[in-house]
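Bench notes, bay 3.
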Amino acid sequence: IIFKAATATMNQRCSLLVLLVCGATNAFTTTSPSLAHLRSTSSTSFNNERINFSVSTPPPPSYSRTTHLAAGPIEVIDPSYNLALGSLALGAIFGIPGSPLKSKLTAFLAGIPLTLFGLFLAFQTTTLRFTLDDENFSLVRSGGESTGENVVVGGENVWAYNKFVNYDLFPSRSFPILVYFKETQTPEEFWNVGPGEQANSEEAIANGAVPGQVHFFPAIANTEDLIKGFEEHGCAKIE
């Protein structure tokens, strides 16, 4: 009798455990209506629903995340090591033994700084890329990842073409060292940070400048392709 009672009690406990597990499983799997719907459809409906889900149906709120998707195909501007090589060459001219311009003074004042700057530019050229899509100009890492927030004014290094008010190459298009552009996408409170103070001064505005946030980048990419991209996407330019 004791054995039968123990067995009955054990069976009741096992049944209760099975019910709890099944209940927990059902509670977990039915929290996603889309999955329940997919299980109840035929194979043809399943395939159609799968396509619709992946394209137009947002994921459940608990798994949602913010992403910045490119608008259309991305054009990656080829890197250019011209600026880095030029800086390294100047550093060598002012610093290597036997150079007519080499002295203790020029080696420290020009040779070493230019060499270090050339190495820095070579690193930047290798690790960064300029990209163009249908709507935006971006500065990204060579693998396509975001560079994070802008170190000066914050915000991601992605700018809409329709927010451009000017762009250019310095000192000239035939001898580019810096890529310059000005935009109004950045909040106005940052427009006068750094060189923006002079670029947005009353004198500059009186001479035809348009207020906005100023950006300078070293010409570490094929600047001809970059400027052509700006022109093709209708970026505003002051002539």
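Next record in the batch:
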Amino acid sequence: STQSTWERSAEKMAYVQLEVCIDSVASALAAARGGAARVELCAALSEGGLTPSLGLVKAVCRALSPFNVEVAVMLRPRSGDFLYSEEDWQVILEDLDLFLHQSAVNAVVCGALLADGTVDVARMAQLVRIASEGPRHVSVVLHRALDMTPDPLAALQAAATARVHRVLTSGGAHAAAHALTTLRAMAQLGAELGIEVMAGGGITEQNAAQIVATGVALLHSSARVPVASQMVFRNPVVSMASSAPVAEYSTNQASTERVAAILRAARTPPTT
């Protein structure tokens, strides 16, 4: 019946959660105040996100301790591809050890691929094993390295084989809104395999409901707005960035209002 369809839809909307991608304590607090269930903490979001410092991780965990908001931390030692050398991998394991024993993180986020573009199941399983043997339960998330694989559904299966808890994906497209059919298939396969599927990549107030309609109830967005610098003196001839032009006197921060707006849009049952 129409009512039962609406009820099922409303029930699904109630489970919608938003993870906000952040790189600062200010963004963490904005995300929490907007209703985020989780933050993904990175450094260098302009590079797609790199491993943050232990100091930042501890500061964010401390700031969010009054809130019921989980902290997931990026493990990515460099920009570029996800085919890691042994030296790269040792850095990832060292950072993982620090975060497990010296912070209150709830999850770590990583992605390792083989040269043929498929998921490196052995390395992902190693992360899961080490995280499970730590002082408390920390889950492992496969990030959008999954979208760099030849087959997103096969990559989801591989992540499940490695016992990864959750994957972040745009469905293999530039933006999640362009891969609704794939996301629907991934949501169904994820439910069968017992692995969470979270959609990310261009999630906004305008398309959140469209994404949730695929059956994916976990969303990921930076929900950012530019924030102007309070510097009065500004040197016009010196740039700290290697590749100009960069907005040196503006930063991007998560917006409490945008976080709330994305959740509101995602949780609004369809009118038809």
